[in-house]
Specification:
16 strands; about 190 residues
Length: about 190
């Protein structure tokens, strides 16, 4: 008698298409139909092969890892089956972890002025991300970024020595913070 194997099929089950992540190495899992033990699956990112998996049973599930590069990465799986080839492709958006740095004023800044101008820079940030400026855990200002990987500036009001200033970047890729201390001594009085 003759064994008939239908056309092989492969499907990515996880993650879903257009998934957003801040994790660079992720698991890809899925299932195959009409595949045989010994068939191989190749995993690609933007057309470059990342890894190969050998199936241990017929019509088996699979999982493997890929290393992401950027927003809009194309993840493809190729089933090299006994009775033919099949492909499936999804898009994954990799958002590297963001960073934020207060550039001015410097840490341990001393002042006699209550209103302080704060400026800094962000990396792996995107239009619409927000920056909260806190003074001793109380929000003082909210800034909405208008460019990717940009600079920010805003004012805060302080009233004591040892004021902890936190700039918190809230990004689609995660949260980042930078902290400095500013000492307010008030206006000197001559008696």
């Amino acid at each position: 008698y003759i064994n008939y194997y239908g056309t092989p099929k492969i499907e990515i089950i996880s993650p879903s298409d257009n998934h957003n992540t801040s994790i660079q190495i992720i698991y890809i899992s899925g299932t195959t139909y009409n595949s045989r033990a010994g068939d191989t699956i190749e995993l690609f990112v933007n057309g470059l092969k990342n890894s190969t998996i050998t199936l241990n049973s017929d019509s088996a599930n699979f999982s493997g890892t890929v290393q992401l590069n950027n927003i809009g990465d194309s993840i493809s799986v190729k089933l090299n089956g006994f009775s033919g080839l099949d492909f499936d492709t999804i898009t994954i958006n990799y958002f590297p972890p963001p960073t934020i740095k207060i550039l001015s004023p410097e840490n341990n800044y001393n002042t006699t002025t209550q209103i302080i101008y704060i400026s800094g820079t962000t990396y792996n940030s995107y239009v619409g991300d927000t920056i909260q400026l806190f003074v001793n855990r109380i929000q003082n200002n909210l800034i909405i970024l208008t460019v990717n990987n940009g600079t920010f500036s805003g004012t805060i009001s302080i009233s004591s020595t040892n004021s902890k200033i936190v700039a918190r970047l809230n990004s689609i890729a995660g949260i980042a913070e930078d902290t400095i201390t500013i000492n307010y001594y008030g206006t000197p009085v001559i008696k």
